[in-house]
Amino acid sequence: MEIPKPTTVKGDPNSSPPPLSAPTAAPRLSLPFATRLPAATTGAFLTGMFLGLSYGSQTAGLRFRAENAHRLPKTSTGWYLYHKSKNYHVMLGGVKEGLKMGMKVGFWVGGFFTIEEAIDRARGGRRDFLSTIVAGLSVAGGFSAWNRFPLITAARTAKVGLLSGLAFGIAQDALSLAKGRRLAYVDFALGINRRARTSIE
Fold first, then answer.
1. d(Cα 82, Cα 60) in Å, to the nearest integer?
2. Which candidate, 109, 135, 131, 110, places its Cα nearest to that of 122?
3. Which residue ranges in the chain fall short of pLDDT 50?
């Protein structure tokens, strides 16, 4: 006796191919924007403050030595006061430069995430590396304009923004794929949408 083969009905959700790619409300990095922006800005501020503290304290120490090279103390009490004053200038210079650098880095990183989210929404909710690249180039352009870089330096800054945006965007997309989220350009490359439309028709 021949066993009949199971048949599939077009439009049956159990037999139809995966749904077509569509905009998704899934947030980047599995964090909503209201949480992602403060977290990124705070991390950038702390990183910038650490770097600025190191650079500022070192610069302040060298400046103090240069300004007082012609009047070095000659007694033990004088050397004690000299080092005490130097430590004060080093600490003050480090704190000032740390706060300054932290605010700068936090501002530009916050701008990057804000632009990225705005582009995602302007594209109808599609979140992929294209929005991240545009955000990186926008921040690079704004940074170059703010500092009035010459054309060659601005081009190098744009290259850094492009590569950074591409790397960070691809990393986010890889994380999204690992969590099972669909990406339109991946579906297009694999031909999933074309096969889905053919099966539905």
1. 14
2. 131
3. 1, 6, 8-11, 13, 15-22
